[in-house]
Amino acid sequence: MLSPVLRSTFRCSINASRLKASNSCALLSKRLYSSNGSSGPSSSHRGKILALLGALAVGSTIASISYQKNGPVEYVEKDSSSQSQQTSSQGPAFSPKDVSVIFVLGGPGAGKGTQCANLVRDHQFVHLSAGDLLRAEQNREGSKYGDMIRHHIKEGKIVPQEVTVALLKQAIRENYDLGKKRFLVDGFPRKMDQALTFEEQIVPSKFTLFFDCPEKVMLKRLVERGKTSGRSDDNVESIKKRFATFIETSMPVVNYFESQDKVVTVSCDHTVEQVYDQVKAAVKDKIGN
């Protein structure tokens, strides 16, 4: 509602407009019907002007009636940021009370996949490998992201977060609908923006398992794996690019979560069984059996 002062001002403006229109009508009428017939407009012109005068009078009357009946319509300026604020305020898709997510990070060849398989077997986790999801999307017929994903993987670069986060969200939703509530997200997040977006849009993580492994050990494992894996990125050139990318972009993520006391470091320069003992102890300590 407008204040009485503004309402009075609006009413005065309407009345002033009506008076102005009335005066204009009178002036034009006087000119039309001047005693000097030779200087006045023709009959057809007089008809057009009379029609215009009638429209002005009717418009003024309608505006007055509308104001008296409904009052003035307030102009409300739209806040361009309100929609984005509303979107961000919607929060994550899942509650951490309902869904437990463990991020699994470490250099390529650190043994993340092997240990995730052990947790799936013994503790009913769902293993979501960001790399596997991207490769599946890359090979999916009709995928609009296929070529872009293929190029990024070949160059050892990180696929844009919008694609990876969307694939993870879909995979978690599908498994959650089947009653699954524990997830190992392997090889993700690889950059700070991925970490923040995932926790804002999907669910905050419980903690991060960081597999710390010497680079020479990882290189040896990956070269050996490349003989049978068929993966385009299991070659020495791509492997070295992946090492560099991990150090430059993923280690800041590990450091970020470590500052929140949400990282458990697993030493991987041991046997598979010894590494798994560390992993089991971390899971039990953080989220129970």
TrEMBL record:
Q: Name one GO cellular component term.
A: cytoplasm
Instruction: List where in the cell it is found.
Output: Cytoplasm; Nucleus
Q: What InterPro entries does the database record attribute to this sequence?
A: Adenylat/UMP-CMP_kin, Adenylat_kinase_CS, P-loop_NTPase, UMP_CMP_kinase, YKL023C-A-like
**Entries under PROSITE patterns matching the protein:** ADENYLATE_KINASE
- Decide whether keyword Nucleotide-binding is in the record: yes
Give GO terms for biological process. 'de novo' pyrimidine nucleobase biosynthetic process; pyrimidine nucleotide biosynthetic process
Note describing how the cofactor binds: Binds 1 Mg(2+) ion per monomer.
Q: SUPFAM superfamilies in the record, alphabetically?
A: P-loop containing nucleoside triphosphate hydrolases (SSF52540)
Give the EC number(s) under which this enzyme is classified: 2.7.4.14
**Which residues take part in binding ATP?**
G109, A110, G111, K112, G113, T114, R225, H270
Name the catalysed reactions. Answer: UMP + ATP = UDP + ADP
Write out the entry's keywords from A to Z: ATP-binding, Cytoplasm, Kinase, Nucleotide-binding, Nucleus, Pyrimidine biosynthesis, Transferase
Residue positions annotated to bind a ribonucleoside 5'-phosphate are: R135, K157, I158, V159, G187, F188, P189, R190, Q194, R231, R242
Positions of region (LID): 224-234
Kindly list the cofactors needed. Answer: Mg(2+)
CDD domains found in the cross-reference section:
ADK
Q: Name one GO molecular function term.
A: UMP kinase activity
Report residue spans for region: NMPbind. Answer: 129-159
Instruction: Return the domain comment text from this UniProt entry.
Output: Consists of three domains, a large central CORE domain and two small peripheral domains, NMPbind and LID, which undergo movements during catalysis. The LID domain closes over the site of phosphoryl transfer upon ATP binding. Assembling and dissambling the active center during each catalytic cycle provides an effective means to prevent ATP hydrolysis.
Task performed by this protein = Catalyzes the phosphorylation of pyrimidine nucleoside monophosphates at the expense of ATP. Plays an important role in de novo pyrimidine nucleotide biosynthesis. Has preference for UMP and dUMP as phosphate acceptors, but can also use CMP, dCMP and AMP.
What family is this?
A: Belongs to the adenylate kinase family. UMP-CMP kinase subfamily.
Q: Which PANTHER family match?
A: NUCLEOTIDE KINASE (PTHR23359)
Q: What is this protein called?
A: Uridylate kinase
What is the name of the gene encoding this protein?
URA6
